[in-house]
């Protein structure tokens, strides 16, 4: 699990919620230079009036080897998909199950996913020119990637219902 403010477990999230923590911070400098996009005047094209957000720590810290994914493929996978795969595995463990015990079962995977920001951000990046881009950026593949990683044989469907998918 990964959430803003260094929260890396359901227990830490629950404690943070009970305390009423504010997990919104200024834009971290390792994400982007806030001044390049900030303007206090609302409505300026290509600008934002906010310097704040809820940012995940180490969003690029995906353990590709654990899931049998090459580094070359991993950098082509949308971070949303990487986080979804890791979180799915962790959710099964937190339920007291061994994820490997589900292999071969008729277990379904249903996910809600929207936004393709990584596609926009990486458009034209020569380092991402690989055969993995098609599956790495396509939201419909996210549920199948989970099913494949866990060896599940049930249906795998990704739904995009706009804001209700987030």
TrEMBL record:
Keyword Transmembrane among UniProt keywords: no
Residue intervals of the Ketosynthase family 3 (KS3) domain: 1-166
GO cellular component: cytoplasm; plasma membrane
Top-level taxon of origin: Bacteria
Claim: Phosphoprotein is one of the keywords in the record: yes
Keywords from the named record: Multifunctional enzyme, Phosphopantetheine, Phosphoprotein
InterPro entries linked: Ketoacyl_synth_N (IPR014030), PKS_Beta-ketoAc_synthase_dom (IPR020841), PKS_NRPS_Biosynth_Enz (IPR050091), Thiolase-like (IPR016039)
GO molecular function: fatty acid synthase activity
Stored SUPFAM superfamilies: Thiolase-like (SSF53901)
Coiled-coil annotated residue ranges, if any: none
BP terms from Gene Ontology: DIM/DIP cell wall layer assembly; fatty acid biosynthetic process
Name assigned to this protein: Beta-ketoacyl synthase, N-terminal domain protein
Organism (species): Mycobacterium kansasii
